[in-house]
Amino acid sequence: MRTAQVLLRRKIKRIAVKLEKYLGTPHPPSTRAKPIDMLIATLLSQNTNDKNSHRAYIQLKKTFPSWSEIAGVPWQKIASSIHSGGMANQKSKRIKKIIRTIEKEYGSIDLDFLYEKSDDEVIEILSSFDGVGIKTAACVLTFSLGRDIFPVDTHVHRICNRLGLTSNCKTPECTFQQMKPNIPNGKGYSFHTNLIRFGRKICKANNPLCNICPAYKECRYENKEIFAIKRTNRITQKDYEFMLLDNV
Ligand code: SF4
Fold first, then answer.
1. Which among 14, 216, 223 is the best mutation to test ligand 1's pocket, defined by most ligand atoms within 8 Å of the CB?
2. Would the N or C end of the chain have less CB density within 10 A of its end CB?
3. Which CATH number is correct for 35-144, 3.40.50.1000, 1.20.1600.10, 1.10.340.30, 1.20.140.10?
C-alpha cells in the first residue's frame, strides 16, 4: 500500500474516533428491516427530513399493509398516503414502478434473496431500478443487510471533501468509491451515522460551526478560519437523536 493511502486511512480513523468521542458511538438497531422495506423507506427519505419521511413511511404501511396492494392501485392513491414526505407524485410513481419491476423480474415482491448476494451484486441489482442510485443501495446494505458499508449522502459528501478525505470529488458517488477502501473495519455504520449528525448540526452546508468543531485541526476547508471566529450556541444531544433508517 502506498504511503499516501496509509496516511489517509490513519486520518480517517482519527476523525472517526474524534466523532465517536464527541457524538457517541452509534450502534445499529437490534432488529433490522427487510431489504424491500428499507429500499422503500430510503426512497421516501430523498429530499426531505427524517421526521417527515418517517411519517410518510408509517402512513404508507398503514394504507397498504402489504406491498402487493401497491402494485395494483393508481399512483395518485399512493401519493395521497405519502404527501407528508414531499415530492409525493414523483415518489409514488417511482415506488409503484419498482414494486412492479421486482414482481416481474423475481416472481414475488420480496428482496430477501439479497441476503445471499455480495455487496457489489446488491449495488448492481438495486441500481438497475429507476430512481435508485448507489447511495440508496448502500443504505439497504448497511441498515437492512448489516454489511460494513459507508453510505454517502450530500452531508457525508460535503464533509469528506472539506476534511480532505477525497480528491476532486464532485458527486456523492465519487466520494463513495474513494472512501470505500479506506473506512476502518467495522466502522461503516458508526462513521456514516456520526457524519450525518455532524453535517446536520455542525459542519452545515452554509454556516459551518467551525468554532466548536472537534475535527478542526484535520480540516482542509479553505474558509474554516472565517467561520471559526463566529460565536455559536452549544449543541445538545437531543439535536442528533432521530435517524430515519434506524426506525424503519
Ligand atoms: S472545521 Fe468547519 S468546515 Fe471543517 S469539518 Fe469542522 S465544521 Fe466542517
1. 216
2. N
3. 1.10.340.30
